Amino acid sequence: MSEANTAHSVVEPSPGTRRFAGSLVVLYAVITMIPLLWIVLTSFKSPDDAISYPPKVFFTPSLEGFCNLFTTRSRQTPEFIRTLGPPQGLCDEIARGRNMVVAGPSNYVPRFINSLIIAFGSTVLAVALGTLSAYGFSRFRVPLKDDLLFFILSTRMMPPIAVAIPIYLMYRTIGLSDTRLGMILLYTSVNVSLAVWLLKGFIDEIPREYEEAAMIDGYTRFQAFVKVDAAAGDDRNRGNGDLLPDLRLERVRFRGASDLRQRADGAALHSDHHRGGRAGLACGRRRYDAVSGADRRIHGAPAQALVARHYLWSRSQMSLDTHSSMPRQLRGQNSAARPAGSHRDGDHRRGRRHADAAIFADALFLVVRDHAVRHGDVHHCLEGQE
Amino acid sequence: MAQIRVEALDKSFGDFHAVKAASFTVEDGEFLCLLGPSGCGKTTTLRMIAGLELPTAGTIRLDGEDVTMNRASARDIAFVFQLFALYPHMNVRRNIGFP
Question: From its phi and psi, is residue A226 left (phi > 0), alpha (psi between -120 and 50) or beta?
Answer without folding.
Answer: alpha
